[in-house]
């Protein structure tokens, strides 16, 4: 149970100061009765604001089809972000909704968002080798030795000393390939190709672990059970 003013502020309704005013104005009920004590503790399921149940009191785990052109950063100076696709109230939640790993601005595809911080840490930790599958289009015909280089466990990215873990590259066409990584280094797919002199023109993430976009259109998301990855 949490304090009423804290519940409303953490779910993004308003500031804590505003929550106190809302409560004093009688807009908030607990178990059907108006309360005027903003410090009162309550179970979220019993709270109503203007007669409506609370907007998603449980933690969030969302699978988003990230469109091109949006960043995963919360820093407004970096431009429009994936969070702008969420309902405004969810954008103000605390803990904040954040991405599990990142896709760069010019990469589309499957991106997970959550406000469960330990899940972010677990799934982005190098120890948790969740396979991520990308489709890349490159600027010239794929070289036959590329699959071997990606799989070697010896491929070095510019400016790094630790070689990349073995990755699987499967050609889909002369300039198109599917790549499976178990790591999540900065711009990793683009930099792995760059290490062999290729430029990635298009990059899309198809899968994260056992999850796929299915028929989600770019910009849409669907909710996943919060125990999807276990507890
Ligand atoms: N590799 C990249 O180069 N960019 C991404 O967004 C993800 C993986």
List keywords for this structure.
3 domains; elongated; alpha+beta; Alpha-Beta Plaits; nine-stranded mixed beta sheet; Structural Genomics Hypothetical 15.5 Kd Protein In mrcA-pckA Intergenic Region, Chain A; binds uracil; 6 helices; 15 strands; four-stranded antiparallel beta sheet
The CATH topology assignment of the largest domain is Alpha-Beta Plaits
Counted up, domains total 3
> What is the tally of helical segments?
6
Shape: elongated
- From N to C, what is the helix and strand string? EHHEEEEEEHEEHEHEEHEEE
Largest sheet: 9 strands, mixed
Poorly predicted runs are none
Could you tell me the number of beta strands?
Answer: 15
Tell me, what is the CATH class of the largest domain? Answer: Alpha Beta
What is the share of helical residues? Answer: 10-25%
Give the name of the CATH superfamily of the largest domain: Alpha-L RNA-binding motif
State the distance separating the first and last CA atoms. Answer: 21 Å
CATH architecture of the largest domain, by name, is: 2-Layer Sandwich
What would you say this structure looks like, in words?
This protein is an alpha+beta fold and 231 residues long. It has three domains: 2-53, Roll (Structural Genomics Hypothetical 15.5 Kd Protein In mrcA-pckA Intergenic Region, Chain A); 61-125 and 214-223, Pseudouridine synthase I, catalytic domain, N-terminal subdomain (Alpha-Beta Plaits, 2-Layer Sandwich); 131-208, Alpha-Beta Plaits (2-Layer Sandwich), CATH 3.30.70.1560. Helix content is 18%, strand content 27%. The protein is built from six helices and 15 strands. It has helices at residues 4-10, 16-24, 88-91, 117-124, 146-151, 188-194, and strands at 2-3, 28-30, 33-34, 41-42, 47-49, 52-53, 61-66, 98-99, 107-114, 132-138, 168-173, 176-181, 200-208, 211-212, 221-223. The strands form three sheets. Strands 7, 8, 9, 10, 11, 12, 13, 14 and 15 form a nine-stranded mixed β-sheet that branches. A four-stranded antiparallel β-sheet has the order 3-2-5-6. α1 crosses α2 (16-24). The chain is elongated and about 70 Å long. The two termini are 21 Å apart. The structure holds uracil.
């Amino acid at each position: 149970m949490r304090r009423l003013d804290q519940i409303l502020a953490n779910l993004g309704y308003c500031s804590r100061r505003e929550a106190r005013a809302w409560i004093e104005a009688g807009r908030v009920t607990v178990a059907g009765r108006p309360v005027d004590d903003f410090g009162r503790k309550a179970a979220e399921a019993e709270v109503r604001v203007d007669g409506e149940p609370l907007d998603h009191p449980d933690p969030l785990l969302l699978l988003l089809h990230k469109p091109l052109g949006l960043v995963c950063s919360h820093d407004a100076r970096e431009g429009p972000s994936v969070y702008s696709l969420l309902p405004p109230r969810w954008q103000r939640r605390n803990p904040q909704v954040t991405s599990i790993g990142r896709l760069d601005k010019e990469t589309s595809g499957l991106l997970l968002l959550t406000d469960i911080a330990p899940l972010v840490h677990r799934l982005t930790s190098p120890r948790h080798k969740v396979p991520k599958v990308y489709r890349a289009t490159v600027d010239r015909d794929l070289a036959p030795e590329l699959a071997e280089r990606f799989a070697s466990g010896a491929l070095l990215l510019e400016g790094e000393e630790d070689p990349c873990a073995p990755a699987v590259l499967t050609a889909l066409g002369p300039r198109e390939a599917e790549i499976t990584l178990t790591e999540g280094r900065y711009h990793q797919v683009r930099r792995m190709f760059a290490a062999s002199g290729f430029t990635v023109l298009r990059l899309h993430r198809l899968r994260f672990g056992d999850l796929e976009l299915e028929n989600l259109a770019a910009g849409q998301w669907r909710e996943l059970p919060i125990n999807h990855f276990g507890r």
